Amino acid sequence: MKETPQRANGTEALQTLHERAKQQAREVLLKNRRSEGTVHYTTPSKESYPYQWLWDSCFHGIALSHLDPEFGKEEMRTLLLRQCDNGLIPHIIYWKAGPLHWYDWGLAGTSSITQPPMLALAIARLFEKTKDTGFLHETIQPLINYYRYLLERRDPLGRGCVGIINPDETGEDNSPRFDTLLDFPPDVDAQTHHARRFELIEAYRASGFDERHMYDLFWIDDVSFNCILLANLEELILLAEKADRPQEVEYFRIRREKLREAMRKHMLHNGRFWSVAPFKNIRLEVATWAHFMPLFAGLYTQEEAERVVQEELRNPETFRAPYGIRTVSKKEPSYRPEGFTDDTSRRFGGDWRGPVWFASQWFIYQGLLRYGFSEDAAWVRETTLQLIEKSGMREHFNPETGKGSGARDFTWGALALDMVDQSES
Ligand code: GLC
Fold it and tell me: Which of 29, 41, 47, 49 maximizes ligand 1 atoms within 8 Å of its Cβ, making it the mutation to test the pocket?
């Protein structure tokens, strides 16, 4: 018989679910915390991901803004300690040597690529909570440098969108969005996929970290990455206003409008946004949860949003599963709900070919709220809490059964703190 989740009946049951999720969130954030000298951060999973990761730390910052904003600020400061001279913030910082995911990228102690630019939003949330102007003034210049790096070095054709040079830069390591460009069949295995991503890393390193070298090898103007950038530029502009940086406010306003227009011009096709490979002139038409990211970025018109919510988000044949929103449409040949085992995740990274992740749920939730789809948002929030209740703080979950997979004691479930807080306020 097909398993279906138990819905929380009544306010009291929901309240209990909230409290239990919050408790687990607190526990995992504390358990994975590391503090030594000036270095303070939270590992995504002590056993499987024992370093500092960029977008993970931003998720921690958002969750910690509800729990321990002082530590959240420290975690952001720690991230900024390893910013490169050109403005790039690396996606992994190896504060301590460890056996897993260890790789010599050719830089001292960090990776050489980045991850979705969630930093402005995380810093904005922490600033909102603490009103610490010292923190604002301390972080604004590195933030400006980081976003300028993306807008300038990653837009070689001057089209307005920014490009990624490796699938890992989206945080969705093995997403089928990139299969065409990597020449992979729908059932590509974890090890083969991982090896190819690291060939690209090697080629980048051999070029002396020259982005131009990647134009032919791997360059994608990705929907999710650019949506995250667009939403974060909104936050950055507000922060720059508060920090009294009028020139930068003006610059980022112009760039934000340019990005918005470019995304509509180059990515919108038949009511959906699709990632594109500009140097190969290819549109990557694989249906993933990236369809919902323009909600997060405020990029759809209300009418377009209603269509995508009706036709995809509420559609059990494509994205809506008993336990949340699938990260890949059920109709795609690459869709596989099971998710990697913890050992596979530990060796090759997580599985983005279908399982539900807490971060995708959080982004979708924010987008639905932004467009006023409060009932759908409440459903996404509740499925998130049900996953925590049923399977705990795992890395990802089978959308059909709710079974957890990948890393254990994984921190992203702490984003539930933010979802619950928003529903209570
Ligand atoms: C996995 C995820 C990636 C995350 C990393 C650390 O590789 O795919 O998004 O940053 O784990 O948690």
Answer: 49
At residue 157's C-alpha, the angle toward residues 155 and 162, to 5°, is 25
* Minimum CA distance residue for ligand 1 atom 2: 350
**In angstroms, what is the span from residue 410 Cα to ligand 1's centroid?**
10
Q: Give the model's pLDDT for residue 98.
A: 83
**Distance from the CA of 168 to the center of ligand 1, in angstroms?**
8
pTM for the full model? 0.97
Kindly give the number of the ligand 1 atom that is closest to the alpha carbon of 115.
Answer: 10
Task: Report the half-sphere exposure of 324 (CA within 13 A, side-chain side).
Answer: 34
Cβ(242)–Cβ(261) under 8 Å?
no
Closest CA to 290 of 339, 333, 328: 328
Q: How far is CA 81 from CA 17, 63, 75, 139, 349, in A?
A: 38, 21, 10, 11, 25
Measured CA angle at 163 (ends 269, 418), to 5 deg = 85
Could you give the angle at the alpha carbon of 386 between the alpha carbons of 384 and 389, nearest 5°?
A: 115
The alpha-carbon radius of gyration of the chain (Å, integer) is: 20
| Cβ proximity of 350 and 407 under 8 Å | yes
Instruction: Measure 350 CA to ligand 1 centroid, in angstroms.
Output: 6
Q: In ligand 1, which atom is closest to the CA atom of 101? A: 7
Cα dihedral sign, 272-276-282-286: negative
Q: Whose CA is nearest to atom 7 of ligand 1?
A: 349
Query: pLDDT, tens digit, for every residue of 269-319?
Result: 999 999 999 999 999 999 999 999 999 999 999 999 999 999 999 999 999
Q: What's the chain's length in residues?
A: 425
Phi, psi (degrees; rounded to nearest 5) at 323: -115, 30
**CA-closest candidate to residue 219, choices 265, 262, 182, 189:** 182
pLDDT at 1 exceeding the cut of 50:
no
What's the CA-to-centroid distance between 362 and ligand 1, angstroms?
Answer: 15
pLDDT higher than threshold 70 for residue 6: no
C-alpha 12/C-alpha 419 separation (Å) is: 18
pLDDT in tens, 23-45: 999 999 999 999 999 999 999 99
Q: How far is the CA of 81 from the centre of ligand 1 (A)?
A: 21
CA distance 194 to 236: 33
Pocket of ligand 1 (CB under 6 A): 44, 49, 53, 55-56, 171, 173, 349-350
Six-digit token pair at 6?
A: 């138990």
Amino acid letter at 330? K
